[in-house]
Design brief:
The radius of gyration is 21 Å and the shape is globular. Strands 3-4-2-1-15-12-10 form a seven-stranded mixed beta sheet. It has a six-stranded mixed beta sheet with strand order 5-6-7-8-11-9. The chain has seven helices and 15 strands. About 5% of the residues have low confidence.
Length: 305
């Protein structure tokens, strides 16, 4: 009898570990540049907001895009419980934008990782493909969840913003690479795809026989806007160009596009006001609402079937 009870406890514990939710996301953080500084959207003011949002949401692992090495170092200095995989797209080292995967070291063991370029020569660092305007890269990792031993593959990319042929061929290449590398294990693909859910290139992923759009299959969804905002929180779109695709062994419990903002003072009109329905002790000020990036982050909470 005692052995039976122990066995039941072990089975239940294993089931609980396997059913634990993982919070995963994708976030194009916008590269650091002087143009954004002049327009009030500088990286130094955006970085703390981005990091605090990731910490508050307790994101376990996420893919990012447009990340320059200085930005990566800034984020990791704040996200002290995290490490990363990825390289600069221009030279396979530190030059150019990364598409890194940033993950909690306490939660995941990194088993294997690599990169390939979205081009006709994917193993050649810095190669630009087809009609692309920029060099593009995909970073991947094979992870094991320490608490359960479950393994999964994670691919993160940034497809070109101009080259239609480059996006189409990149999509085919990524699907091909996933089939070659993952050997049927659970897989997640995130990134800035620069195509929305109505584009025929999007269907290369959804009709691949491997990947499903987490937006579609999520049990619960919170998505009041699309994923691109152009640094203007007043903009509204139905287009989702930042996606999280998952294989059929992954159950998506929650999906969200987070439209969090921060505020900077409007200096020429910085007098306190009173709200007519608020206590007189409360001072209200006119501030400008700003987004932490020109994209919104997409997060899911998932478990394994």
């Amino acid at each position: 009898m005692k052995r039976i009870i122990i066995l039941i406890v072990c089975v239940l514990a294993l089931g609980y570990a396997n059913a634990q939710e993982i919070c995963l996301g994708t976030y194009n953080i916008r590269n650091e540049n002087n143009y954004d500084v002049k327009n009030g959207n500088g990286w130094k003011q955006r970085c703390p907001v981005i990091c605090n949002m990731m910490k508050f949401e307790n994101v376990d692992i996420f893919g990012s895009q447009e990340v320059l090495v200085g930005q990566l170092n800034d984020m990791l200095a704040d996200l002290k419980d995290y490490s990363y995989i990825g390289v600069g797209r221009d030279d396979g080292r530190e030059k150019g934008e990364y598409s890194p995967i940033i993950y909690k070291t306490s939660k995941f063991e990194l088993l294997k990782h690599g990169n390939f370029w979205l081009s006709e020569t994917p193993d050649v660092a810095g190669s630009k493909g087809w009609d692309a305007a920029c060099i593009r890269i995909c970073t991947w990792g094979h992870f094991q969840i320490k608490s359960s031993g479950r393994r999964f593959w994670y691919f993160n990319l940034h497809m070109d913003h101009k080259g239609v042929k480059a996006r189409r061929e990149s999509a085919k290449l990524v699907v091909k690479k996933i089939k070659e590398i993952t050997n049927g294990e659970p897989v997640i693909l995130t990134g800035d795809f620069n195509v929305d859910q109505n584009n025929e290139i999007y269907t290369i992923f959804t009709k691949s026989g491997i990947l499903r759009d987490s937006y579609i299959i999520a049990k619960q969804r919170f998505a009041e806007n699309g994923t691109f905002n152009g640094f203007d929180p007043a903009r509204k779109t139905d287009s989702r160009i930042d996606h999280i695709f998952v294989s059929d062994k992954i159950f998506v419990n929650h999906y969200g596009i987070l439209t969090n903002c921060y505020w900077t003072p409007i200096l020429e009109n910085f007098k306190a006001e009173k709200g007519k329905d608020a206590p007189n002790e409360i001072d209200l000020y006119k501030y400008q609402s700003r987004t932490p990036s020109d994209h919104y982050p997409v997060l899911i909470k998932f478990s394994f079937n």
